[in-house]
Amino acid sequence: MSADAHIPVLLQAAVDALEVESHDNGTFVDATFGRGGHSRLILERLGNGGRLIAMDRDPEAIAAAREWRDPRFFPVHARFSNLRTTLDALGASSVDGVLFDLGASSPQLDDPQRGFSFRFDAPLDMRMNPALGESAAEWLERASEAEIREVLRGYGEERFAKQIAKAIVAARRDRPIRTTRELAALLAATVRTRESGQDPATRAFQAIRIHVNQELEELSLALPQALAALKPGGRLAVISFHSLEDRIVKNFMRAAARPNLPERLPVRARDLPSPKLRVLGRPVKPSAEEVAANPRARSAVLRVAARLA
Ligand SMILES: C[S@@+](CC[C@H](N)C(=O)[O-])C[C@H]1O[C@@H](n2cnc3c(N)ncnc32)[C@H](O)[C@@H]1O
Questions:
Q1: Is the pLDDT reported for residue 1 higher than 70?
Q2: Cβ–ligand 1 contact at 6 (below 6 Å)
Q3: For atom 3 of ligand 1, which residue has the closest CA?
Q4: Given pLDDT bands bounded at 50, 70 and 90, which one contains residue 267?
Q5: CA separation for the pair 147, 162 (Å, rounded)
Q6: Is the pLDDT of residue 106 over 80?
Q7: Is 55 in the pocket of ligand 1 (CB under 6 A)?
Q8: From CA 223, how far away is CA 92, in angstroms rounded?
Q9: Taking residues 152-167, what's their average pLDDT?
Q10: Contact 111, 7 (CB under 8 A)
Q11: Burial, 104: exposed, middle or buried (Cβ in 10 Å; 0-12, 13-18, 19+)?
Q12: pLDDT at position 93, please?
């Protein structure tokens, strides 16, 4: 596999869930293009009158998308928290399906220069869009010990969050932590127990990445915009890789699938505001074969819902 490749996770299940063939002249959104594994299959199933809008916040992902020559395909460099304005700019007021395949792509994780990985030595960056916001190194240089601890604990479920935050603040008094190797060495010295098959840096790197990219905030902002953009019958499909992401998706879908009962008001059943989504099926997880072929799939969960009228 080339260094620039990404093996799509739950490819068939996620694209099947969008029911592209039933709306083959419809408009679909791939909110996380990556290297386009899901987009490619959507285009295979889309008719000549259909449209696929592909978003990614990563300039390298969008550069790859812009190489595609297909009149039905519209790559957009944007965060998916800007879904509404992206659709407005393209005159796509409503759509037939939206797919989110969350987290980082293999090209991001495997390119040493992006600073996502403790496997290589590189400037500690971790931004999906390196032109925006604060790098991981900049954040670690200025964040309070309490903030670092909370990020490690909250997003990484890191048991040694307190010790690591303390060690980072002590280390930066001498000099700032600027590289992945410096951070990985600090973590190896601070994380006292070893989980089998897992580097001691895994949890902290994941937590810092989620924080630097505001991944949970992005998701919380995007889901209501996706729901509002869907036509009746349109599909929302979300693949998540982290328990906190999955919880946000699950709670969002469940809440939208319930009639919204105003608290303490005596409302007759027929007067209840109608639900906006119907949750379809149970969460889908990759098969053992898929996980064996692509270890990145191991924590993936796909949830699907359909827009009600
Ligand atoms: C797991 S990869 C998607 C892989 C893709 N489905 C494929 O088959 O190649 C996730 C992608 O979503 C992008 N991404 C993550 N958060 C984003 C956000 N808030 N807005 C837009 N793109 C985002 C990342 O830059 C990354 O390229």
A1: no
A2: yes
A3: 34
A4: confident
A5: 10
A6: yes
A7: yes
A8: 17
A9: 96
A10: no
A11: buried
A12: 87
- Please write down the HEC assignment for all residues of 166-184: HHHHHHHHHCCCCEHHHHH
Whether 165 and 143 have beta carbons less than 8 Å apart is answered as: no
Instruction: Note whether 30 and 57 are within 8 A (CB).
Output: no
3 — pLDDT class (breaks 50, 70, 90): low
Q: Does ligand 1 come within 6 angstroms of the Cβ of 245? A: no
User: CA triplet 68, 39, 240: central angle to 5 degrees?
Assistant: 140
What is d(CA 120, CA 148) in angstroms, rounded to the nearest whole number? 23
Residue 266 has pLDDT above 80, yes or no: no
Q: How many residues appear in the chain?
A: 309
Give the model's confidence band at 274: pLDDT under 50 very low, under 70 low, under 90 confident, else very high. confident
Mutate to test the pocket of ligand 1, among 29, 55, 105 (most ligand atoms within 8 A of CB): 105
**Structure-token match 């879904």, residue found:** 83
54-78: pLDDT as tens digits: 999 999 999 999 999 999 999 999 9
Residue by residue, DSSP assigns 49-91 as T-EEEEEES-HHHHHHHHT---TTEEEEE--GGGHHHHHHHTT
Handedness of CA 185, 215, 105, 253 (dihedral sign): positive
Quick check: CB of 107 below 6 Å from ligand 1? no
Report how far ligand 1's centroid is from the alpha carbon of 296 (Å): 14
Residue 212 confidence (pLDDT) above 70? yes
Report whether residue 303 contacts ligand 1, using a CB cutoff of 6 Å: no
